[in-house]
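Researcher: Structure prediction, please.
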Amino acid sequence: MLAAFCYSGFRLGSPAGFVVGIGVPVVVIVFWGLFMAPRAARRIPWPALPLIALLIFLASAAALLAAGLPVLALLLALVSVGYTVLSFYLNRRSGPADSLRVPGWNGPTARR
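Model: Predicted structure follows.
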């Protein structure tokens, strides 16, 4: 996903391409770390989490398509949609992922 954003950004041209090629992946990394990472203090709740991840991955597929790589864009889009459908199916079948706790870990805590 990050490589797709980098590649499509650098294909834009000299000054704008550098800013987009570095800036968009940095924004995605910061957003993912703050709101989507397993230990994020302000993690997005379950039903929205895989949908937002799907939107980000589909945006990276669109970036690949804009960069002239339609086969990779289609592959990334199909895998992203398949993963999201599978995660909803497994969540419905076995319960929310929050029930699968790691022994000895009680979730994110404040740093002292």
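Model: The chain has four helices and no strands.
Researcher: Thanks, that helps.
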